[in-house]
Amino acid sequence: MKKAMITRRPHLISNLAFLLLCLGLTHQLPSLILLSLSYFLLTRFAAAPGGLAWRNHPTNLPGPIGWPLLGSIPTMGTLAHRKLASLSSSLGATRLMAFSLGSKRVIISSHPDVAKEILTATSFSDRPMKESARLLMFERAMGFAPSGEYWRQLRRIAASHMFSPRRIQRLEGVRQRIGDEMEMGLWGEMVGRGVVELKGVLQRGALRNVVESVFGMIMGRMDGGDDHHHGDEVELGLMINEGYDLIARFNWEDYFPLKLLDFYGVKRRCHRLALKVRALVGRLIRDRREGGCEGMDDFLSVLLRLPKEEQLSDEDMVAVLWEMVFRGTDTVAILLEWAMARMVLHPEIQAKAQEELDRVVGPNGPVNDTHLPNLPYIQAIVKETLRMHPPGPLLSWARLATHDVHVDKVLIPAGTTAMVNMWAIAHDPSIWADPWTFRPERFVEEEVSVMGSDLRLAPFGSGRRVCPGKALGLATVHLWLARLLHHFEWRGTGLVDLSECLRLSMEMKKPLKCRIKCRNSSSSGGGVGVV
């Protein structure tokens, strides 16, 4: 009996400390006294490698003890990928490290072999659910639905109908038309202001591309113009930005059992936004069903034309279509801004890419998808940008162990969150020569797939939860990057700041500002420009 009490004591102590903190938060006792007592109890009785959450699951994995109660939450901060990479390296734990986020057990790998174990194992086929993501994605979207028959059905629909090579090819017209609009917008900014702030143009173009691909709404000019769909586009853009803000916000409920509380009003705002999403996307579904979808190639029409045995309910279609708009907008714009920042910083690389374009496309010819396989240096620039600046440095969404599983010969208990630090892998000098140097030639000299088979560079994930839209996203980035480099010369306006800001994706903290000059007669400025 005495032994059992001793075994349970750390758990009881940690619960007592948690209760004391809750009392402090509700001001029932002086906070300073409670925090001091909590600190004493936790450091005296509950310290363990990996932190408090691992106390009842001893492991030989290295890891930080972390802060009392909070674990490694303070370590995450604004650039968690860099801090976790540094911590793993200092502890000699690049293969696998244990740590705590509040009451949640977490492991993280910064090694491609162990990362592959995590990402391809059936034991990690589910995701831990952030409360904001659960509310905003309705638990029915492809990236967030639990593993099971419904989730497998969505994957089949995506692979066979929505992201097939034929479907991507048929959407080239949308990408080309929006590419034209972006170039006109860029040249208009250059003429009017003498400088281009690329981020806004790319974000509007990426949003429009996704909206037209998903809903088939043919918009007017990018400045709004005379367009009865413009209001829906603006509303979707506002909802997406609010969703990014909510998912990026710290929420205590993601790390502690606090479901009855709503710190900072995150859940309340998520509920309000979810109602707006249901109303707008639901109306678009009803309008399309009533108007018919013959001859339409957008994703909504694809879903409505599915065979009866594969059809989704309207509620499920809302979740699936909203997720495509929500997750498909920022990656393209962010990746292109990073790529263009590198082109401004490295004019010799820009010139080499433009020489390839002139040779393959011709100095005045329009770039199209058929040229892309013959542009290996353009593809290498995209890969090197993904390596240096992966949009999801921690692969955005972690995995959840559905049962006890061995990872790198270590037993990991069910319910543990598993993360992969793709940023750390991509900057590891034992994997990449000169990892801090932007050198696209490395991908010309060696073929490296970014589609998930090679975990040295898997920015879209791997295994069952790999991003289903990766091929469409890359087709868009390759085409738009080729067009921007073919039509314009890019120069900086001063120092290019490569500081990072991690929200839903890893963005440039300070938007890129540059000057452009038209290179050919097909450019939007009619061949005249100044640097």
From TrEMBL:
<protein>
    <recommendedName>
        <fullName>Cytochrome P450</fullName>
    </recommendedName>
</protein>
<dbReference type="InterPro" id="IPR017972">
    <property type="entry name" value="Cyt_P450_CS"/>
</dbReference>
<feature type="binding site" description="axial binding residue">
    <location>
        <position position="467"/>
    </location>
    <ligand>
        <name>heme</name>
    </ligand>
</feature>
<dbReference type="InterPro" id="IPR001128">
    <property type="entry name" value="Cyt_P450"/>
</dbReference>
<keyword id="KW-0408">Iron</keyword>
<dbReference type="InterPro" id="IPR002401">
    <property type="entry name" value="Cyt_P450_E_grp-I"/>
</dbReference>
<comment type="similarity">
    <text>Belongs to the cytochrome P450 family.</text>
</comment>
<dbReference type="GO" id="GO:0020037">
    <property type="term" value="F:heme binding"/>
</dbReference>
<dbReference type="GO" id="GO:0004497">
    <property type="term" value="F:monooxygenase activity"/>
</dbReference>
<dbReference type="GO" id="GO:0044550">
    <property type="term" value="P:secondary metabolite biosynthetic process"/>
</dbReference>
<dbReference type="Pfam" id="PF00067">
    <property type="entry name" value="p450"/>
</dbReference>
<dbReference type="InterPro" id="IPR051996">
    <property type="entry name" value="Cytochrome_P450_78A"/>
</dbReference>
<dbReference type="InterPro" id="IPR036396">
    <property type="entry name" value="Cyt_P450_sf"/>
</dbReference>
<keyword id="KW-0560">Oxidoreductase</keyword>
<keyword id="KW-0479">Metal-binding</keyword>
<dbReference type="GO" id="GO:0016705">
    <property type="term" value="F:oxidoreductase activity, acting on paired donors, with incorporation or reduction of molecular oxygen"/>
</dbReference>
<dbReference type="GO" id="GO:0005506">
    <property type="term" value="F:iron ion binding"/>
</dbReference>
<keyword id="KW-0349">Heme</keyword>
<keyword id="KW-0503">Monooxygenase</keyword>
